[in-house]
Write a structure and sequence with these properties.
With 332 residues, the chain is an alpha/beta fold. The protein is built from eleven helices and eleven strands. The N and C termini lie far apart (95 Å). Keywords: Membrane, Transferase, Transmembrane, Transmembrane helix.
Length: 332
């Protein structure tokens, strides 16, 4: 009897030992696997951080390193205007992005109005649009944004964060794309920086790991709410790019951010806008910059038919290319 008890106890001990040996082996394998995974993650992250350490932003690379995604940010803009429509069509038809990401605080991600409905009817364009929720920032590094300029200063911050999250091509809503922008997708970051001026934020083409982006965002630790363009343009130019111009591919003139170029769209009939890659329409500034503003305070598909200045031709091209005229006289 005693022998049977000892034999049973021995079997139980062996079973228990086998279980713990098996469990220990599994645990050791899992630990090894996790350590390998974390090591690989650290190596990938380190590799990404070093990715642009010696990158040449003058020559770029021989392949695309920026995703072919156009980002638009629409804060407090639930309705698409004619100009919004024209610029969206120009970006789509002249550049041909894989996707549009529209970042918006519009309730439910819904837009309204005749021109949005025209976009909805353009099935090829609409299939490339993703609408992503985004609230305008109200503070940065514990500093409240100027309430009067929250949507503007918040938009400046949001575009940096969007580029850091996704990479791609950021466009202001009133930027008209004239040429394909693929040549800029071979640089770490391409940004407008005209001679003798601060950088322009209307067009940003960047890899999400571009070294300049976190430095730019970090420069907001000294936020000046009372100065319109200090943090968006002046401070990063003076504090970062004057010292390290190699961090960006400097685009002069071609992004059409200079005031005089925009002014020509509404005043100079012989202006050669096709020589540019993009141009900022400055549509919200026409009331003080366009001497003929009172004659045409707004644009639509009918007004641009006979508008004699360059913007008229630009708009007419997109009206025709989009097939919009097929719907103009129809109830949408």
């Amino acid at each position: 009897m005693l022998l049977l008890l000892r034999s049973s106890a021995l079997r139980n001990l062996l079973r228990t030992s086998a279980f713990f040996l098996f469990f220990g082996t599994v645990l050791m394998m899992a630990t090894t696997l996790l350590e390998g995974t974390f090591r690989a993650f650290r190596e990938v992250r380190h590799e990404e951080e070093l990715k642009f350490l010696y990158f040449n932003n003058e020559t770029g690379t021989d392949h695309f390193i920026v995703p072919n995604i156009i980002h638009l940010i629409r804060f407090n803009k639930t309705e698409f205007s004619f100009v919004d429509y024209i610029c969206t069509q120009a970006a789509f038809r002249n550049h041909r992005p894989d996707h549009f990401y529209i970042h918006t605080d519009s309730p439910g991600g819904k837009f309204r109005g005749k021109y949005w409905e025209l976009i909805e009817r353009d099935l090829e364009l609409r299939s490339r649009i993703r609408i992503l929720p985004l609230e305008p920032p109200s503070e940065i590094y514990g500093q409240q944004l100027n309430p009067e300029w929250r949507l503007y200063h918040g938009g400046d911050i949001a575009r940096i964060r969007t580029m850091m999250k996704y990479g791609g091509i950021y466009l202001d809503n009133d930027v008209y794309v004239i040429q394909n922008l693929d040549k800029y997708r071979k640089f770490e970051i391409a940004i407008n920086w005209d001679e003798g001026q601060f950088l322009g934020t209307q067009v940003i083409i960047a890899n999400r790991k571009a070294r300049f982006l976190p430095l730019w965002l970090d420069s907001y630790r000294e936020y000046h709410p009372e100065i319109w363009y200090y943090n968006a343009g002046e401070r990063p130019t003076v504090e970062i790019l004057y010292k390290h111009p190699e961090l960006v591919h400097r685009v002069k003139v071609q992004f059409g951010a200079d005031f005089d170029l925009s002014y020509n769209l509404y005043t100079y009939k012989e202006f050669d806008w096709r020589a540019l890659d993009t141009i900022h329409l400055m549509i919200n500034h026409r009331h003080y910059m366009d001497p003929y503003y009172n004659v045409t305070p707004f644009f639509d598909e009918n007004i641009v038919k006979n508008y004699p200045y360059p913007f008229g031709g630009m708009a007419r091209e997109m009206v025709a290319a989009s097939g919009m005229e097929n719907f103009i006289d129809k109830k949408i």
